[in-house]
Specification:
The chain is of the alpha/beta class. It has nine helices and eight strands. The protein has helices at about 10-20, 35-45, 55, 90-95, 100, 110-115, 135-140, 155-170, 200-205; strands at about 1-5, 25-30, 50, 60-65, 85, 120-125, 150-155, 175-180. The radius of gyration is 16 Å and the shape is globular. Bound molecules: NADP nicotinamide-adenine-dinucleotide phosphate (NAP).
């Protein structure tokens, strides 16, 4: 699969490396442009390409890996037909006060979906610490099914299948939490943030 990343920082680089290892290719875009992007894609190798926003948005799957508040400065037009995974987290101290999200009336990813009319949106890959992701993936891949690390995802049914395939390819077990509204159950202000447990442990945290 060809995956576009909006953002080329820690999350995009670690996920890109893992996705490339299992046979995918990536297009990365950032804010500062090619000078900063070029060494990143060179390090990732021939299956990584530097692109602009439009090119990243046209890939089979687009992963948002930038600060949450920066999403709302993006032109939504190129994403009108996109399948999007929102891997971002909302932090009030970094992204500003949003009372509807802070009081759990709205999931942060519901606001993301509203910003991209026509796009199909899922929240996923936001709970794991990227600094340790490669080790966790390796550990989970070699574990028996009951001990694999389960990752929550929620939102559009078709994009959930794509996200679940990616999770499984990396060695994780997808855990379907439900709709985009349900995605607030694993936002940064919940007990699932930075949680790396198995399916049963994740289910228990959700109850
Ligand atoms: N770090 C974690 O463990 C972790 C885990 C899961 C989820 N997350 C979430 O994932 C997101 C990214 O985190 P990160 O650690 O990868 O951040 P990061 O290392 O600071 O990288 C952010 C990236 O976003 C780009 N960016 C900023 N504004 C942009 C814009 N308007 N258009 C396009 N690109 C833009 C930056 O471009 P430049 O390089 O040009 O500045 C940079 O490449 C955050 O929402 C974070 O909360 C983080």
């Amino acid at each position: 699969m060809k995956i576009g990343f909006i953002g080329a920082g820690h999350v995009a680089q670690v996920l890109s490396e893992l996705f490339i290892k299992v046979g995918h290719s990536v297009v990365l875009t950032n804010r500062h442009g090619l000078t900063r992007l070029r060494p990143i894609v060179e390090k990732l190798g021939p299956h990584a390409m530097a692109g602009n926003l439009e090119q990243a948005a046209q890939q089979e799957l687009v992963i948002l890996a930038l600060p949450f508040k920066a999403i709302f400065d993006l032109d939504p037009q190129p994403f009108a037909d996109s399948a999007i995974i929102d891997a971002t987290n909302y932090f009030p101290h970094r992204d500003g006060e949003l009372s509807a999200v802070q009081t759990h009336q709205t999931a942060s990813t519901e606001l993301v979906a509203q910003h991209f009319p026509g796009a199909r949106v899922v929240k996923a890959f936001n709970t794991l610490p990227v600094a340790n992701l490669a080790n966790l993936a390796q550990q989970s891949r070699s574990a028996a099914a009951a001990k694999k690390i389960a990752l929550p995802l929620a939102g559009d049914a078709g994009v959930k299948l794509q996200a679940a395939d990616l999770m499984q390819a990396l060695g994780f077990l997808p855990y379907d939490v439900g709709s985009l509204a349900d995605s607030q159950k694993f936002q940064a202000d919940t007990n699932l943030f930075l949680f790396a447990g198995n399916h049963a442990e994740l289910a228990q945290k959700l109850t």
